[in-house]
Request: fold
Amino acid sequence: MAKKRKLKRKMPFVIFCILMIAVFAASYGVVSKFVLPQPPGQNQVGNNESGDNSSGPAPKIGKRLNFLLMGIDARPGETKARTDTMVFVSVDEETNRIAMMSIPRDTRVEIPRRGVDKVNAANVYGGPDLATETVSELLGVPIDYYVLTNFNGFQDIVDAVGGVNMNVERNMQYYDPMDGTRIDLKKGEQLLDGDKALQYVRFRGYGNGDIGRADHQQKFLKALAKEVLQPSTVTKLHKLVPSVNKAVNTNLGVVQMAKLANAARNLSNTDIVTQTLPGGFMTIDGISYWNVEPTAAHKAVANIFDGKTMEVVQKETVNIETEEYKEKEAEKKETEEEKSADEAGESGEQQDVEQPPTVEEGAQTTPDDGKTEPADSEEAVNQTPEQQQDQPQSTDSETNNGTEAGGEDSWLPQVPEQQPVEQNNAQPENNDTPEQQDLVNNDDAVAVVQ
Reply:
């Protein structure tokens, strides 16, 4: 079970509203009128010394204002992309409390007019309006407005305030060759600029996945708020607006911004309560989800409105596999095994072809072309003279005594091959001349006399 989170911090409400309006609404004219110091000769709302203004004094903010903050990884001007970050924010002027709830991107929800899917897909199907409607039904509360920004705007915000001091709890390394995303942070206390801050909030290498990432995003938001509290930061806020103007999309109007700005002047400080939407890990047919019970979601919202938090992981891990999925996985496994077997067979054939011939022990290699002759086998050595005589004779084109005619050893005298001597009682055929026969007979006679 995850630790029970109750992270509350006091911060001037005026600074928070300035940050919200300047960064997320990104309307330079409105912020300069209602929040930033006015030039001499102008009042807080009007445009001239007489106090005349077309809009009149901005009305007070209601008891509660709910809106949805969304971050997407998209080009400037592009709004229909999967949301990487979703935070529900509720501002209560009467209780001086701001409640923030992180919505895990893998949360399994019913998207209106689309069916069941992950909550981060709602923005793809219908833009920020459908995403806001989906989260509103999930939490059981109305959401009045949305603020959508991309990662470029996020980096500009951090750089504009001079960076954020953070204690990075662990080494963070990650690289995605597909989109070039690179994360490389070292453990320890350090000042994060816009690029490093983005690496910190995007890192997902936690044991509890996206839930751990949401927890770290909340820690970063608190650290960012601490930086905004610095007196030297207040003078830099006007620089935020032009830098993120192109990276923000919101349905907050002029009146709503004025309400926030005027409400800021009536509050000295406020509580910030953060919570991750409670639920449990679920896998359906190999797809990971964050499983949320509607009743638990509604209870969690009511708790943060009252300044309370609850445990995040409330359900045991669930793994569901349909029969159709099992059949597809079995077919996939069989195909992979067949492919592996085919690759192994092809690899073996290549080895057979490419393997060089081995030289038998005792074989002779001719010096001119490297050809080998097998050594006399044991069977050949033990052959009788008659068996050896029956062996086929070498032709003129074959080598003589292991050397071809005209080879390097062709200058050596050629020794005629001796014929085997018959060792049986059969009389050999006598083709000698009469003179040779007489000589033989005489030799035999002499031998007898001796």
Observations:
- The mean pLDDT is 69.
- The longest helix spans residues 323-354.
- Residues 392 and 398 are 12 Å apart (CA to CA).
